[in-house]
Amino acid sequence: MKFSVTVTLKEDVLDPQGKVVQNTLQNLGMDNLKSIRQGKYFEIELNDNDQIKAEKKVNDMCKKLLANLIIEDYKITKI
Amino acid sequence: MKFSVTVTLKEDVLDPQGKVVQNTLQNLGMDNLKSIRQGKYFEIELNDNDQIKAEKKVNDMCKKLLANLIIEDYKITKI
Amino acid sequence: MNSSVIVFPGSNCDRDIAVALEKLQFKNKMVWHKETKLPKSDLIVIPGGFSYGDYLRSGAIAGKSLIVNEVIKAANNGCLVLGICNGFQILTETGLLKGVLLRNKNLKFINKDVNIKVINNDTKFSNKYKKDQVLKINIAHNEGNYFTNFNHLKELNNENLIAFKYCNKNGDTNKEANPNGSLENIAGIFNTKKNILGMMPHPERMVDNLISNTDGINLFSSLLK
Amino acid sequence: MKITNQIVEKHGLKLEEYSIIKKLLKREPNLLELGIFSAMWNEHCSYKSSRKHLKNLHTIGKQVIQGPGENAGVIDIGDDDAIIFKIESHNHPSYIEPYQGAATGVGGILRDVFTMGARPIALLNSIHFGSPSHFKTKTLLNGVVSGIGGYGNCIGIPTVAGETKFNSTYNENILVNAMAVGHAKKNKIFYSKAKGLNKSVVYVGSKTGRDGIHGASMASAEFDENSEEKKPTVQVGDPFTEKLLMEACLELMKDNSIISIQDMGAAGLTSSSVEMASKGELGIELHLDKVPCREENMTPYEMMLSESQERMLIILEDGKEKHAEEIFKKWDLDFVIIGKTTNTNKLTLKYNNKVEGEIPLDALSSKAPVYDRKWIKKKLTKSKIDTKKLNNIKIEDALIKILSSANHSNKSWITNQYDQMVMCDTAQRSGSDAAIIRIHNKQKAIAVSVDSSSNYCNSHPLTGGKQIVCENWRNLISVGAKPLAITNCLNFGNPEDSKIMGEFAECLIGIKEACEFLNYPVVSGNVSFYNGTNKKNISPTPVIGGVGLIQKLNKPINHQFKKDNSIIIVIGKTFGHLEQSVFFEEVYSITDGSPPEVNLTNEKNNGENVLEIIKKDLVNSVHDISNGGLIVALAEMSMGSDYGVKINKPKNLTNLFKYFFGEDQGRYVLEVDKNNLEKVEKILRNNNIFYENIGFTQKDYFEIQKELKIDIKELYKINNQWYNNY
Ligand SMILES: Nc1ncnc2c1ncn2[C@@H]1O[C@H](COP(=O)(O)OP(=O)(O)O)[C@@H](O)[C@H]1O
Ligand SMILES: [Mg+2]
Fold first, then answer.
1. In sequence order, what are the residues at sequence separation of 6 or more whose Cβ sits closer than 8 angstroms to the Cβ of residue D27?
2. What are chain C's domains?
3. Which A residues in the span 14-43 are in contact with C, Cβ-Cβ below 8 Å?
4. Minimal Cα distance from C63: which residue of A?
5. pLDDT tens-digit series, residues D227-252
6. C124 near C222, Cβ under 8 Å?
7. Which of C98, D182, D572, D668 gives a 20 to 30 Å CA spacing to B60?
8. So what's the ipTM on this one?
């Protein structure tokens, strides 16, 4: 069973990476770009057949390791 | 108009980060974990109304900057 | 010899390399990344640092700067180009050198003196060294884990394009001597024409016995011939 | 909005303090004004509990150009060179988010130093964690170390020294203190005092976001279960932007454009503008609609209290605006004129030309509350240990236990994560008593070290305060530097508790006595109170950061043995003080008793003579004797070198544990060539210095006659495994 997880910075938290990437893209002539924010992405495969259980496990992983809940939010999707 | 982009390492490229994350999770007792790969995630907002044009632009950004095509693949989704 | 050091906003070894070059009597100029022309140079150096914070991927954004187009042109015309640390990462991002520098396998920044072995001393950059000579040189990077595809690796070996490999004191290039997980302990490579050298270790930090040692000097003096 | 008692308390202000505010304003403040008062009157900015005691510190000397009171202290190192340095705490943010907390701590202290016109040349840190077995410690250690490295490495300033300690007293409240050292030209130092009317007040650097709102109040509040809720106030550091800001500021400082300059640290725009104007006895008017904002719809309240990083406020000479703007544009940074100086002695805040708040500046600075808090003295205690009992352990086992412990293991797991070599002037990296940084393009160098000893301070604050200044001084001497001045970071618990306030007051008396006696003044520092949770306070932990001068750096000296068959000399008398020693703590878990006595006269004489001997080039290596006593010092000199020791059994002291593990102060180990021995002994005899020849160096083995013999490679291995196994 496979899940994707995206981890993004909370709304009011500074995103230095996104800022530099945005400036660079604008300098490269992408002038319609309004904003870009950078985050992390994980593809997780589990040996599990029970979706509810599996999802709970992924949720656990996010809380324990993948996301820093102080500054980040995360989202889990089954793929 | 908003898009999400995920950038992931190609299959045959070593993913040191994913590997360490995987080990750590397994040490934390997540024994059903089969594999985990790490990548980047972007949320991109454009001042554009034409979806086809906009998507082309995002595609451009990926090719020019966001992904290193030698080692990475990317995927664009409208959100 | 005329040298030019490219300065990105987050370069931080630019002064160090300039000091080393001037110590060896290069006529050196600093070139700001927003410039569109290079001064006349026999050698272009892309120094270490965090060109744009190393955000996104190390070297990626610098690879898109204005001056880089000029560097590419000059390199294609045979000008000598040396990329150290972040400079190596930038050279791979521009495509002047093949392969990539991934994160260190322990996922930590590593700063220490390591031993490297001179693999090919028959180049403009390395002729003052002996073949298989073991040097002690400082490394300082987060992404120095060199990776490339199978065919290119074969080419590197067949064409003698590997400049340096990490090794131990005795010159053994074993796994224990590999600080960052680099493929085949690679610490530096040349392009096919051998006018471009990218390396992770910092030779400019090894030109003064009071601070470290002088194992880096021959790299610069090789170029003077 | 009507200000209720609840709102007042939420701002960390006491109701009595709120009454004073109303009196000073002669009216009720609005929310914006209340927020500004809360930022300026909290402990972190106002020093209301500490000021009375800080005034007594020893802060003068021929070498001092600027003492406490500016962004950083400035000392004279001869010619036209000045060294600017300071230490600061970032304890609470680092506990909540270790990576970003530590990183922004480094960013903040760097700004304090380059604000004054110095190019930073070295970073140091003092980090204290809870017990290694505490469930949070590992994550915190990892995060803090990579945060310190992440920021310093990126901006390109070498991190060259520090200290790392573990103690259960920090289980719920770690300490992260960062120190920055910079070099400037003596006649090119910049201060924060505003001068002249109608001068442009310029905002430069990053945009203002909603981060860290009320960070300074957080730094002044105790932790409790609800601290989790305070999380969103954590700021994310952007070392790349800081690098741009640093280069842009240093570029602008080359000519005479700047009247005054101040970084936005704790309490951001509020404290920087208030400080500049009140020091200059002027008024200041800010147009908040001009402030570059990261988020939409930010309110004046948020702008004034935001602690977004990497920002500065500059007051410019007339007509220099365009020139300055060009420099900041070159470095891709925001540059906006947001206000001007006035003659009103008020802070006036406008938004779209409407006055949103107005406060007399003296109400925020000189009239802010100062407390003379109650404090009580601590008595010296005596341990109840029977030293006869000690003989049932072998010296070798005790030594190995200490060398393999968390606190006394080799720190290269940490220091290898810091770029120590960038700038190419680091002549002695981490791992020795002090780091040595050459002044660029010159022959002279400075030595730097940070030190603390919370166990000593906890058991007897006065002695502890004295001791730690001396230990820091010894560390500089040991690398051949003349100690010049210190900065201090005073990490204590809740000052409203008279016991804690006593610890603070007495530590300061100790610090003052030692500084005065050694001519080692304090030129800058920082106080961090409220370190603790739910009434459990940390042990008092003053951290001392010292800077010394090496007039002519010919060959850097460190503590590694260099040669076979050199004579080993111990300077200073060994009495065998074991209470509060590492030996008692690590081997017997005994933590009561008093710290070793500090004899300032001996300390000074011994130190000055060692320095003399080093200057005359009569020694191969030097190490001070500190934690763990003589045997640990000797082991440290052997590990990583090719040479160990052969030590004679001592004649005078019968108890070997006392002799080898005692932590008597003012002592050094010297490695002296046989043919220099006579000269060294002559100097020592002529100056009445107590010394002993205790043995000599030998290849490969660490040996005490008839007691133990260990391969030094084995010792090295033992000393290096803790971090890798953790
Ligand atoms: N967090 C740290 N950052 C940098 N250097 C450190 C750190 N912790 C320890 N060190 C270095 O490790 C060495 C040993 O530290 P310590 O035992 O405290 O030395 P000393 O007793 O001489 O003060 C010193 O060189 C010190 O600078
Ligand atoms: Mg010491």
1. none
2. 2-224 (3.40.50.880)
3. 16-17, 20-21, 24, 27-28, 38
4. A24
5. 444 445 678 999 999 999 999 999 99
6. yes
7. C98
8. 0.92
